[in-house]
Amino acid sequence: MDPDTSHSATKQVRSIALRLSHHPEHVSDAEGFALLCARLRRDQPDRLLVADLFSGAGGLSYGLEAAGMRVVFGADHYSEANATHAHHFAGLSVDWDLSEVGVVEEVAALLRESRIDVLAGGPPCQPFSKAGRSGIRHRVREGLRDPIDARRDLWRSYLEVVRLSMPRAVIMENVPDMALDREMFILRSMALDLEHLGYSVSTRIVQTSDYGVPQHRQRLILVALRHNLEFVWPEPVERPVTLRQAISDLPSVQGGWHIAENRAGFQTYSGAIDPFQREMRARVPRTHAGRIYDHVTRPVREDDLVAFDLMDNTTRYSDLPAELRRYRSDIFDDKYKRLDYDSVSRTITAHIAKDGYWYIHPEQNRTITVREAARIQTFPDHFRFAGTPTAAFKQIGNAVPPRLGEAIGGAVAAAIRSSHPAGLSREDTAALLDAWWRTTVRVSMPWLKGATRWQVVVGELLLERSSQLVREALWPVVRDWREPADTLSAKDALILVANWINRQSAAEQLIRIAESLILADAESVSLVALDQAVLDGALPSGVGDLATLAGDSAITDDDELPVIVNQAILRVASRYANDLSRAKNKNSDGRLAVARLIGFGRPSRNAHVALLEIGRSICSTKDPECSVCPLVRTCAYAALHSLATD
Length: 646
Hints:
Elements: H1 30-43, E1 49-53, H2 59-66, E2 70-75, H3 79-88, E3 92-94, H4 101-113, E4 118-121, H5 130-141, H6 154-165, E5 169-174, H7 185-196, E6 199-207, E7 218-226, H8 243-247, E8 266-268, H9 275-281, E9 291-293, H10 302-310, H11 370-376, H12 389-398, H13 402-418, H14 426-439, H15 453-463, H16 468-478, H17 484-489, H18 491-500, H19 504-519, H20 527-535, H21 541-549, H22 567-576, H23 589-598, H24 602-617, H25 636-640
Parallel strand pairs: 1-2, 1-4, 2-3, 4-5
Antiparallel strand pairs: 5-7, 6-7, 8-9
Helix pairs in contact: 2-13, 4-6, 6-7, 14-23, 14-24, 15-16, 15-19, 15-21, 18-19, 20-21, 22-23, 22-24
């Protein structure tokens, strides 16, 4: 029985699983796949052939085909999604586990031999903790485990397919959290590996409503182009598509998996009233023009029916009468959400397969139907989903919105056609900044060239707010306090210096931190000690990050480098890309812009510190001294203002 009908307060009706036939050009083996690809190359030589890994139901596949490409391979280790993909797309659609090394090699061989042009997909990626990465490195070195962790390392499988098949373009879609991790370990390492393979790499967190998707849904997109080609991001639409435009033409229904309205049946459809709706109906066969399929939703409990009737789109779960709240309102304050017809929907996620309380219809007292969820994701009405309604909801929630795939696919195809060279790679930019930092003697924050983390902590807390003249005068005095014990031994001198510059509170803070580290038997300031000091509230997180980054002894592993985004660094990154909107999105686009300049690996440490110095002393808010900036030759801001030097 479908789990959505298990509530005792609702009438239990078994939902029907939809079985879909294979696409007319479906193939079942490597030989048939090779023949299909050869025929398509002969008959349609200008169409790019696409393989979609972790393809799900095929949202990205559908979008890429709408952009003029041809999808010939799909792989996903979820049987219902695989059946859906096999119905809608030609070629091979396989239920293979890409965490297995042998499967990765087999897939790569198929794609290489058939000269697949575009590799697309969204490998599941879970950010690592530093402790987790350290443990993995140790076990790999000791031969205790395979380098690929099936739970977390599917992104490595994806990269390995790229390395072995070398497509012309790579498109990766993922959750924004990949770019919000403190070190951005996975994303930065992927970008570096792709650049080493000869690809230019572009990354951005996109809002899908900017591309005509009627929901608030942010996704991380990575595009890599072989032969170092330039990628230009597609322009957003003029105005978002509202929920009313998306689903208001669909007929009223009651909650419940009623047989007459189930997967194999249909509702009567009267016609589209909006351009978006007409697009969703464009490929529905004429014989089905008066039908709407999959317009079914889960049963509604009697108490939920009362609750829904009391709600508008501003009502929170905690606003409902206590007798109607079956969950703790202090924890589940937004457990129920009625959608707003005149806005975009909240993000459709796979959780909709478990319950639909986040997606109560704007006007009717029920949760949204399978077809409404598909419309919100921009799947057209002829697109069907294999399995039960619950399986369909899961596939829809996990999918890439086709309209987003179409926008990205069109931009990739245009980049390949134009063959315009990209600018410096991440590694090149990092090397340029690294060299500048190494050879620059006079800097505004001399402690960043110190030998230890503790010197950075002392400089940041005690001298950072002082004038440049004071910093240069006092740094030689405090430079010898290399570790906490040195500072405590020179406590009188510290207090004297603090009194000179009116920084008594900073001196007291330094003494407290030093004493706590000494009590913890810390001879030097380790990364663990820094993190603990931040957690304890003794050390500002920004100072802790900077101390992690700077100092000759600061880093033992490349992947522990944080990505710091402050006003000075972000100003440099946004000007370099001529995208001031990044300055407004500090924790998303801003982080990606900074990561683009510092790369990944050993040079990125100095590159990152160099960005901070450039932002403080060169790339000022007014009258930047572009002529002395190491980035001037490739900086969009300098070029726009004709500030580049010969």
